[in-house]
């Protein structure tokens, strides 16, 4: 369970986290491996209330695709 606030939480299954090869250098292994994490969250398919879904989709966040998937790279 991922707790967003006191009254908002997500099931772990609603968030997809995967390791990928990153472009460029990073971290302590700068000369060995460049790795990154992709977090993907499908807003439409989530258990969030319709009001919260709409607020997310209406935001002008460039990390939300046209299909309504939030993608965070770290």
What does this entry look like structurally?
There is one protein chain. By secondary structure, this protein is mainly β. It has one domain (2-73): Double Stranded RNA Binding Domain. The mean pLDDT is 86. The protein has one helix at residues 50-58, and strands at 2-5, 8-10, 15-21, 35-42, 69-73. A hairpin with a 2-residue loop joins strand 1 and strand 2 (8-10). The strands form two sheets. Strands 3-4-5 form a three-stranded antiparallel sheet, with no helix packed on it. A two-stranded antiparallel sheet has the order 1-2.
Concise summary:
The protein has 74 residues and is mostly beta strands. It contains one helix and five strands, in the order E-E-E-E-H-E.
List the helices and strands and how they pair.
Blueprint: E1 2-5, E2 8-10, E3 15-21, E4 35-42, H1 50-58, E5 69-73
Antiparallel strand pairs: 1-2, 3-4, 4-5
Mean pLDDT comes to 86
Helix fraction by DSSP (H/I, runs of at least 4): 10-25%
Q: Please tell me the total number of domains.
A: 1
Proportion of β residues?
35-45%
The unreliable regions are: none
Q: Compute the separation of the termini in Å.
A: 21 Å
Keywords:
mainly beta; single chain; three-stranded antiparallel beta sheet; 74 residues; Double Stranded RNA Binding Domain; 5 strands
């Amino acid at each position: 369970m991922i707790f967003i606030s006191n009254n908002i939480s997500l099931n772990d299954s609603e968030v997809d986290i995967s390791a990928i090869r990153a472009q460029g250098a990073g971290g302590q292994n700068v000369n060995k491996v460049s790795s990154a994490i992709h977090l993907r969250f499908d807003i439409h398919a989530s258990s969030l209330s319709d009001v919260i879904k709409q607020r997310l989709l209406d935001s002008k966040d460039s990390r939300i695709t046209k299909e309504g998937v939030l993608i965070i790279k770290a």
